[in-house]
Amino acid sequence: LDIYITFDNEKVGYIQARGILEKVPQGNFILLGGAASDNNSTFIRKGQLRGIAEYENKTGNKINILADPFLDNWDREEARRKISTLLTKFHAEGIGVDAVIASNDATAGGTIAALTSEDLQGKTAVSGQDAELAACQRIAEGTQTVTVYKPVRQLAYVSAEAAVLLAKHESIENISKKLNLAINMLNNGKKDVPSFFLEPVSVTRENIVDIVVKDGWQTMDKVFANVQKNKWPKQ
Description:
The protein is of the alpha/beta class. 46% of the residues lie in helices and 16% in strands. It has 9 helices and 9 strands. The strands form 3 sheets. A 4-stranded parallel sheet has the order 3-2-4-5, with helices on both faces. A 3-stranded mixed sheet has the order 1-8-7. Strands 6-9 form a two-stranded antiparallel sheet. Helix 1 (9-23) packs across helix 2 and helix 3 crosses helix 4 (105-117). It is globular and about 60 Å long. The relative contact order is 0.16.
C-alpha cells in the first residue's frame, strides 16, 4: 500500500459538533458513536469533543454530555433502540435532551425515529454524515440539523491524479506538493501509510442547495419531495 486517500474523519466529527452548537449553544447532549470496532468512530468522536471543548472555552457556555455510547454497528435500528432507552431513562429523571450528535446519517435516522415516538422530532437537534438522500430530506423537513458531505468526485479525481504520479515513480513528497495536500501517517497494523486527507463539508438547510444539489449529489425534486413547493429555497 503506497498511499491512502480519505476524508478527514476527525474534521467530520468537528463539523458535526459545531453545526449542532450553532443551533443549540448550551444544554444536554448525547454523543452517539458509530461501530466501536471501526477506528473511524474514534476519529469522529475525537473531533466532536474538540469542537465542543473549543466552543466552551470560547463562549463560556456549558455542554452537559449525558451519555456517549458507541454502537456495535453503523446501524439505524440499533441507534433507535439505544436513543429510545436513553430518552426513557432521562425522562424518568426529569432531564431533557437538547441535541444528539449522531456520527452518521443512518444512526441519525434511528435517532430521529426514537425522537418522533416522543414527539421531539425537530425539537432536538441531530447531526449526521454522508449526505444520504433520506438525511437530506430530513434536513429539508427540519428534523435533522446538519450532515457532512464528502464529495466523491473530488476523492476520485485526487485518487486518479495520485495513481498517475505513482506510476511515473514520483516520490510521496512530490505527490504531496503537486496535489497541495499534507502528508499524514496512518498505521494500518502493518506499516505507517502516507495518507492525504480531503476536506468534508458541512450541510444545513441554509446551504443544502448550493452544496448537495449544485454538485449533482442529490436532486432538488428528491431532497424537497416532502416539502410544499412554495417553501422550497430558490436555486
